[in-house]
């Protein structure tokens, strides 16, 4: 039995236009990833060491995956995504082999972004781990060795993501590893309006729909919550009539009853 998978390389179809309200995070990624991947010669000429690893942290559903995809697309880089928990194989040596294949493939298809989600599941300590302690330790060490081996300007960048930055193994955060921390938080009111605009762009809205009022009333909603809200509003319109031609403010009112902010005040950094 083998948990080994083919390494899937994609060219993401998410761009900056699909992301609302994360201007500061987007700007940091642009500068840190897009600029060096697109202009390696300029970096070499000036002797600048570009970062190899970025850690996106913040509550679930705030757009971390979207950001990683968008920066890859805009940098015209390939994109390989993996969940940390998928790397934890109990078969001896298999995790290491899988990581080696992951990085080998990334070098082959460079420029390439490797996206590692759920980075916090690689912590062996205190029963928080999905895997066994020895396995997670070997996985972390293998990732570190691979990242240390990435030569500067080799055009492979690693982006990690976590909802629980406090649980990320400190060894992963040292210089030359995931040394750029980028907070991806819940959107503020203008951010929510932007996101509502994105997710209703292909929705025929009745003229009574007031997105600004909806943005006002959706404090602490994440991007994923807002997407859910627009979807539910659409469904409410269909429930009213299968012949519905527009989605109305009343449909959004119905949707609001069923949609809650998934982020509580305590979860905010
Ligand atoms: P997790 O931590 O659970 O992996 P995440 O932060 O990676 O979550 P995404 O997978 O990027 O979240 O977002 C989930 C979905 O929510 C997206 O596909 C998108 O539809 C919507 N979404 C989240 N954030 C935003 C945003 N800032 N702008 C537009 N849409 C968003």
TrEMBL record:
Superkingdom: Bacteria
Domain AAA+ ATPase: 50-188
Family indicated by similarity: Belongs to the AAA ATPase family. CDC48 subfamily.
Protein name: AAA family ATPase
Organism whose genome encodes this protein: Sphingomonas paeninsulae
Classification lineage: Bacteria, Pseudomonadati, Pseudomonadota, Alphaproteobacteria, Sphingomonadales
Residue range from the parent sequence: 462 to 730 of 764
């Amino acid at each position: 039995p083998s948990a080994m998978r083919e390494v899937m390389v994609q060219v993401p179809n998410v761009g900056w236009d699909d992301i609302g309200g994360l201007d500061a995070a987007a700007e940091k990624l642009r500068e840190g990833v897009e600029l060096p991947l697109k202009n390696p010669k300029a970096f070499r000429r000036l002797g600048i060491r570009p970062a190899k690893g970025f850690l996106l942290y913040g509550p679930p559903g705030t757009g971390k995956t979207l950001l990683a995809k968008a920066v890859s697309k805009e940098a015209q880089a390939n994109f390989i995504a993996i969940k940390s928990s998928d790397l934890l194989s109990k078969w001896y040596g298999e995790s290491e082999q899988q990581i080696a294949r992951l990085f080998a493939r990334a070098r082959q298809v460079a420029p390439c972004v490797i996206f590692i989600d759920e980075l916090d599941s690689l912590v062996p300590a205190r029963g928080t781990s999905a895997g066994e302690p020895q396995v997670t330790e070997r996985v972390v060490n293998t990732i570190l060795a691979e990242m240390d081996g990435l030569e500067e300007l080799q055009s492979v960048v690693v982006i990690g993501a976590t909802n629980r930055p406090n649980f990320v193994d400190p060894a992963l955060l040292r210089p030359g590893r995931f040394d750029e921390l980028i907070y991806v938080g819940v959107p503020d009111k203008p951010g929510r309006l932007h996101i509502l605009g994105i997710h209703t762009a292909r929705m025929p809205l009745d003229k009574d729909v007031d997105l600004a009022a909806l943005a006002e009333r959706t404090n602490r909603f994440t991007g994923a919550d807002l997407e859910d809200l627009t979807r539910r509003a659409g469904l409410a319109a269909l429930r009213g009539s299968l012949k519905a031609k527009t989605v109305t403010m009343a449909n959004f009112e119905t949707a609001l009853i069923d949609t809650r902010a998934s982020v509580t005040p305590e979860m905010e950094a």
